[in-house]
Amino acid sequence: MMKALMLAPMGSVHRRFNKANIDALLNLNFQIELAANFSNGNGPESQNQQFVEECAKKGIVTHSIPFERRSLKGSLKCLPQVKQLLREGNYDIVHAHTETGGLILKLAKNAKGESKFFYTPHGMSFWKGSSLKSQIVFRPLERWICSSMDANLAMNNEEYQTLKNWNARTAKFVHGIGLDVSRFKSKENSDLRNEIGLSNQDVVLLSVGELDDNKNHAVVLKAMSQIKEHCPHYIVCGVGPNKDYLLEMAKEYGLQENLHLLGYRCDIPAVIRSANIFVFPSFHEGLPVSLMEAMAGGLPVICSEIRGNVDLIKPGYNGFLFQPDNSNQLKDYLVKLIEDFELRKEISHHNVIDIENYSYNVVVEELKQLYLTYPSKSF
User: What is 181-356's CATH topology?
Assistant: First the structure.
């Protein structure tokens, strides 16, 4: 039987983003092994043990390696374990995910036999308009990682063009992680509004993402402070270092009763059903899953005009784009959608249709064809 190893720094990457990869390989009758830090933690890492148990039921082997979240230096200490895994595993395919996973594989791959190597960055650490430091440090690093892979997978057009410029032969495009759109088709009422004291008449804005500088939730509060007459409420699902900062900002703007920080949630489809408008103000992304989930849930979208977002949103058709540091522009689009119910319905309809191009079935077939394109010794 053919063998495949999927490598990522944290267990949540496999659990949240790699289902289509795993199922594509299972459909091709691969024996699959996953390597990552599967220790249970906070937020996204809180369900790792349950995921490991589910993998075991499917015959998927998991290797827990103590990579450190957000610490490349700490993760590099695990290089000997990865080298040993490659040396002993005799894999036909090794697929690394995230920049850390790609770097670890690049450094360890001398231990390979006849494996074929795949790499998915999930959002490169440089992008159009990023800092000079990012361009000087991360662009050469990413290019070096990609240089010895058999295939490099992009999920947004900007990264795909970059990969093609580096090496057109190894550059491949995949429509995201493969979203299970069926999870968002339920019409069942959510109890969330009642839980946080909101009525059906309240206008609810929603963002999903870590509470950090990149996710840029502060710009939404600034925009809300200019439209208090509309009294929108703002729900944010996520954890992170900016929680106190956002609470203090809301207090300064007199919006402390309008901001609802719900922490990490496992019931995002139900949360989406509780909202009227999805706001996604990040400074940079790869191809954002939370934005695709909001589209699948039929929410009209206002998001920042950045890599990934521009692949999904056509201004005026299925949402609006704004500059992530322009609260006035965001404010204008919020008012437009709040005041025009028919426009919200129209955009909602378009999103539900368009997101099918990024669905689980589409991506599984793309990945199956991709894996078959690079036969190893066992094919």
Answer: Rossmann fold (3.40.50)
